[in-house]
């Protein structure tokens, strides 16, 4: 039976890091050689196993369905995937991939692109054999981030003005760039051509490039193209718009529970809509998570029945049919404990097994444990870039600070004696200067008061641009929402950060008398402490914190039962900044009458013993923000590396606690502006109900702080000076003389059909070979090949 065959095949599969690919041929799994990875026959189905190099060795199984593959092959692939998943212990995440609609994760395995080949293994075609040169095909190349190349008819009718085409003749590969294609697309196509040369031809093929808008500049290459394609008649087609990536995240997602009823039918019941919480998932059940039809995910509880677990993939496909979703809808299947990063991102919070709530975060990377908050050792940041990124600290906060307030829409320098005092009716710019690798680095914080006027907020943004220009675009810009100040911002003010709810810090301006003022003090040392003004009512109190109550007559320092000795010490230090009067210490539960009178009487307040809000360990996500196709799109990049940062674009990095906008040196103004708007919209519409006040930080290429670079493995600070541009790559390839010499060899004749040969030389191949050598050379000269 097929099940037994599957088990026999699986015995030989090893769980080793890297990529393993099989095609389904005559209903059996047949390994695809490594040099053919990235080539997919449209008539076949494939199974792809990827084991990551990380310590966790996370495993993903994809099954790829070609557009012209048979139902039988698709069914066989699905059975093999289920068996492979079981063989590997049920921990892999399974993905169903449909040609042309592959997931970002799948595409990330093939950095140089996917090639769709006509036919299939069953039609007698074979996978790539290295050093085979008897080839003539035309590849239609599309995409900048995820490149796909599809075999099309070898004819001028296949061309258009907006895309790139590779005419692959075995020993020669000619890249023809549509006049409307952009630089990034051209570079990606060159990389694909090099990949074909190196992987499939053992490095023994020449590559030439023709700019479609300047064909006259490459006469020799054009002659070769014409000899294969014939003379071009009529105009080329207009460019075809790129398929719109699935950039609109669906903010409404639904969670369904499914189970079998006695009649063998599937019972699907809606459980909840977004935002989802992890406690909705029960280990004894299986669930379908529907992202508004853009993708369907299945979660298998550990204690669910074998039947429910083994039929998960087929249930997802059945669900898609029942909902009338497109047949190419993405499907992911995962087991409890082996959830994909994308799945976790759809939940408000996610806690890993064995992870305990804690007072603060331990500095053992990525784990949260029950530890006391200790002063953070910044030296660890340089030794462990990932830690710097997680802690969002660029240095030990010992750099130089300058602060300006927006007054009459202009910048007014703030007196250093009042540094750290921020009023809700004002906007401020804070420039922080520090040294890294003997080079000055800058962070420009834009703090916007909740009660500042719209004109002041606009002026703040405008003045930030001016300051940025003054420093040649080097500062990293961070938007700070009042009350959501990032950790580094707290640290640079050394325990002196006080946020006043309203009013202004302008000299000579008398703020309205608020009567009693209440400040909540949080922090255990000068690097993480701030005081925030809260409404002067008893309901604002919290048993876990220190509060300062300032009236015309008294200053009370109130200690909640849940606060630590360190928190009390910091409370005293902040109280001395706010008032020189003697402080009256008040213990919770022993308040004098005057205390309650100042707050307008007793009232219920938060008395639960709180453990510090835990930050869920969400995986970072990278998006490309580009309008190179003519309209603004956001495309996700899976398993990203520094190489994925395109100089022509703006990239959005979502680390959950912070959003980074990385501005490439060649990104245009529209992309930069639209990216910021998109980042705000991205937070608003995120299915997990994200905090719209999440900091958005702008980072310029070449001036990346460690809080950004730490999210990338093996960041190379010198990369930008050493990378090759498209023009440099093209000139390196453009050894046309080698090409022309190569074409004079008799080998070129094997490329041409009899009709093409006659078209080029004006006589048949047989007649040509009968001619004397001098006459052959004469005809070659006329054809422009000598």
Mean pLDDT: 79
Task: Indicate the percent of residues in helices.
Answer: 25-40%
What structural class should be given to the helix and strand makeup? Answer: alpha/beta
What integer value in Å does the Rg equal? 32 Å
> Runs with pLDDT <50, length 5+?
244-248, 354-382, 610-616, 735-747
How far apart are the termini?
A: 63 Å
What form results from the Cα inertia axes? globular
* Total E-strand runs: 34
Largest sheet: 10 strands, mixed
| Strand order within the widest beta sheet | 2-1-4-5-6-17-16-15-13-14
Beta content:
15-25%
Individual helix count: 22
Pfam families: Gelsolin (PF00626), VHP (PF02209)
Protein name: Villin like
Family: Belongs to the villin/gelsolin family.
Subcellular location: Cytoplasm, Cytoskeleton
Write a compact overview of the structure shown.
This protein is α/β, with parallel strands linked by helices and about 775 residues long. It contains 22 helices and 34 strands.
């Amino acid at each position: 039976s097929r099940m037994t065959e599957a088990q026999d095949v699986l015995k030989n599969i090893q769980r080793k890091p890297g990529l393993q690919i099989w095609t389904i041929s005559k209903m059996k799994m047949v390994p695809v050689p490594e040099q053919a990875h990235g080539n997919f026959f449209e008539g076949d189905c494939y199974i792809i196993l990827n084991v990551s190099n990380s310590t966790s060795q996370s495993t993903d199984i994809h099954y790829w369905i070609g557009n012209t593959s048979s139902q039988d092959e698709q069914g066989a692939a699905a059975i093999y995937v289920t068996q492979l998943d079981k063989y590997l212990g049920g921990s892999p995440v399974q993905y169903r991939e449909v040609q042309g609609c592959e997931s970002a994760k799948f595409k990330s395995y093939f950095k140089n692109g996917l090639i769709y080949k006509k036919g299939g293994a069953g039609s007698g075609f074979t996978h790539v054999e290295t050093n085979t040169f008897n080839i003539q095909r035309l590849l239609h190349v599309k995409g900048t981030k995820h490149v796909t190349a599809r075999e099309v008819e070898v004819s001028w009718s296949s061309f258009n003005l907006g895309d790139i085409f590779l005419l692959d003749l075995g020993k020669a590969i000619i890249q023809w760039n549509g006049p409307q294609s952009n630089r990034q697309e051209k570079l990606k196509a060159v990389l694909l051509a090099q990949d074909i040369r190196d992987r499939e031809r053992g490095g023994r093929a020449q590559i030439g490039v023709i700019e479609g808008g300047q064909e006259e500049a490459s006469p020799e290459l054009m002659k070769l193209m014409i000899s294969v394609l014939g003379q071009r008649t009529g105009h080329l087609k207009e460019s075809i718009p790129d398929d719109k990536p699935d950039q609109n995240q669906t903010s409404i997602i639904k969670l369904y529970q499914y189970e079998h009823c006695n009649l063998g039918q599937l019972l699907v019941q809606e459980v909840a809509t977004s935002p989802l919480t992890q406690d909705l998932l029960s280990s004894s059940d299986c669930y379908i998570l529907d992202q508004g039809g853009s993708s369907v995910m299945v979660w298998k509880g550990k204690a669910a029945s074998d039947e429910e677990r083994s039929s998960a993939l087929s249930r997802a496909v059945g669900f898609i049919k029942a909902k009338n979703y497109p047949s190419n809808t993405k499907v992911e299947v995962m087991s409890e404990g082996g959830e994909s990063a994308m799945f976790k991102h759809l939940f408000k919070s996610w806690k890993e097994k064995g992870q305990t709530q804690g007072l603060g975060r331990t500095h053992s990377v990525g784990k949260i444990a029950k530890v006391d908050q200790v002063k953070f050792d910044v030296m660890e940041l340089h030794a462990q870039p990932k830690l710097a990124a997680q802690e969002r600290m660029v240095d030990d906060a010992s750099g130089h600070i300058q602060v300006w307030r927006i007054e009459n829409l202009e910048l007014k320098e703030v007196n250093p004696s009042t540094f750290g005092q921020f009023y809700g009716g004002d906007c401020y710019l804070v420039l922080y200067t520090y040294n890294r690798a003997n080079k000055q680095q800058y962070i420009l914080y834009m703090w916007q008061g909740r009660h500042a006027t719209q004109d002041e907020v606009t002026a703040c943004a405008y003045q930030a641009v001016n300051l940025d220009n003054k420093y040649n675009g080097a500062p990293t810009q961070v938007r700070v929402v009042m009350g959501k100040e990032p950790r580094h911002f707290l640290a640079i003010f050394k325990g002196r950060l006080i946020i006043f709810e309203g009013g202004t810090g302008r000299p000579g301006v008398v703020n309205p008398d608020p009567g009693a003022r209440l400040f909540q003090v949080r922090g255990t040392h000068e690097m993480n402490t701030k005081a925030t003004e809260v409404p002067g009512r008893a309901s604002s109190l919290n048993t876990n914190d220190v509060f300062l109550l300032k009236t015309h007559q008294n200053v009370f320092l109130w200690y909640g039962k849940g606060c630590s000795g360190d928190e009390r010490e910091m409370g005293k230090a902040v109280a001395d900044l706010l008032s020189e009067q003697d402080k009256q210490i008040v213990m919770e539960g022993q308040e004098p009458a005057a205390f309650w009178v100042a707050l307008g009487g007793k009232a219920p307040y938060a008395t639960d013993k709180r453990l510090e809000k835990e930050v869920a360990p969400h995986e970072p996500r990278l998006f490309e923000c580009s309008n190179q196709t003519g309209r603004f799109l956001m495309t996700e990049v899976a398993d990203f590396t520094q190489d994925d940062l395109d100089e022509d674009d703006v990239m959005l990095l979502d680390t959950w606690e912070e959003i980074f906008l990385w501005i490439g040196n060649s990104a245009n103004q529209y992309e930069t502006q639209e990216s910021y708007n998109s980042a705000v919209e991205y937070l608003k519409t995120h299915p997990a109900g994200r905090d719209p006040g999440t900091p958005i930080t702008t980072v310029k290429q070449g001036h990346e702080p460690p809080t950004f670079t730490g999210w990338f493995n093996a960041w190379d600070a010198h990369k930008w000076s050493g990378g090759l541009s498209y023009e440099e790559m093209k000139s390196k390839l453009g050894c046309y003389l080698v090409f022309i010499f190569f074409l004079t060899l008799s080998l070129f004749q094997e490329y041409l059909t009899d009709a093409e040969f006659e078209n080029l030389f004006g006589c048949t191949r047989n007649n040509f070979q009968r001619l004397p050598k001098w006459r052959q050379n004469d005809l070659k000269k006329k054809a422009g090949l000598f």
